[in-house]
Amino acid sequence: MMEQRKQPKTATEMQHMRKGRNWVLLGIIAGLVALFYLLTLIKVGGAS
Amino acid sequence: MALTSQQQLAGAADGLFEPSVGHFWSLLKPRVMSLVVFTGFAGMYVAPGSLHPLLFAIALFAIAAGAGASGAINQWYDRDIDAVMSRTKSRPIPAGFMAPAEALTLGLVVSALSVLLLGLATNWLAASLLAFTIFFYAVVYTVWLKRRTPQNIVIGGAAGAFPPMIGWTAVTGTLSIEPLLLFAIIFMWTPPHFWALALVKNEDYTRAKIPMLPVVSGAVETRRQIVIYAVLMAPLAVVPSFIGMTSLAYGVVTGLAGAVFVGLSLKLWANGSDKTAMQLFGYSILYLFLVFLGLVIDRFAAAWVGV
Q1: Measuring CA to CA, which residue among B172, B296, B290, B286 is closest to residue B246?
Q2: Which of A47, B104, B147, B225 pairs with A19 at a CA distance of 20 to 30 A?
Q3: ipTM score of complex
Q4: Does B38 or B305 have the greater pLDDT score?
């Protein structure tokens, strides 16, 4: 069941929420870069 | 500063609300994903061969991401019927937290990434199977079958049956009788599992005009079909111990668990109560968990004693 999350009432609140979401997105992209890097290391290293 | 009317209008055009990270997460159907992760893990663990631990984790992550992505595409397409069903009306799109395009974008991007990741981490046969699974769930089931035929979850159930097969293929690079057997167990398990719930949620499905079996053929026929599938499924779960895939102990345990499944189906057939239907629905989840946990324990024990 989806929780009823507080919604922004002001432009500042909205910007704050978007900023938070963008940081999470940045984290996901950085995580993917790290994942592909590790994948390459293992594959180049000869692991099956 | 309060939002100006122009900003509010822009917000309305965007879908009114600001979706949170939690909304995106719920779009991936985490509960379904947990089952996929578990059966996918079991497929990978019991497969002969080995995989670097990190590749193993990446492969499992990719399978989970693929399942989540297909869930997001499903919620994008089903947003109209989700809005009229009590079980689904609080999902992010019908509840107004997210614009449909955002859900579709997430689904498509994560689908592509998951297939790419699995292909690079393991092999392209496993990646192709994952791509086919996403297509099967998002297009064959969601778009073609769900609103057209009471056989929707019988055929569509294949999508949920693929993960252990993908897991097995990720490790071995080939397909054989064992992963097909794991596929068959989940495939036969899906109809009684969903029909038990559909019997209780019949009004919801009727309101949404989804032709689930209880809506089209009635409760009596549905209960009869549940018994048929349960009787066919229970012996299938015992087969691994007859083809040398597991020990005899596994066969005994799954045989007993299957007998309880059939017993509950018969009880539902006889009394037709919502309470028994929910009991069967709950037990079916436990049963699948037992069957696949049994596979993992059996393989672990065999490795431990050096068999």
Answers
A1: B296
A2: B104
A3: 0.72
A4: B38
Residue B272 has pLDDT above 80, yes or no: yes
DSSP state of A6: P
- Domain B176-307 CATH class label: mainly alpha
Taking an 8 Å cut-off on Cβ atoms, the answer to whether A5 and B52 are in contact is no
- Most A-contacting residue of B7, B17, B20 (CB-CB within 10 A), to test interface: B20
Cβ within 8 Å, pair A39-B113: no
Domain ranges of chain B: 20-175, 176-307
Q: Please determine, for residue B208, whether its predicted confidence score (pLDDT) is greater than 50.
A: yes
Mean pLDDT value across chain B = 92
Q: How far is CA B252 from the centre of its chain?
A: 26
Inspect the interface and report whether the beta carbons of B52 and A48 lie closer than 8 Å.
Answer: yes
Q: Which residues of B touch A2 (CB under 8 A)?
A: 23, 26, 90-92, 95, 97
The pLDDT of residue A12: 83
B60-115 pLDDT per residue, tens: 999 999 999 999 999 999 999 999 999 899 999 999 888 999 999 999 999 999 99
pLDDT computed for residue A6 by the predictor: 57
Options 1.10.3720.10, 3.40.980.10, 1.10.357.140, 3.40.50.1240; CATH of B20-175? 1.10.357.140
Q: Would you say residue B8 has pLDDT above 50? A: no
Distance of CA B112 to the CA centre of its chain: 19
Digit-by-digit pLDDT tens for chain A (48 residues) are 444 555 677 788 888 878 888 888 899 999 999 999 999 999 888 755
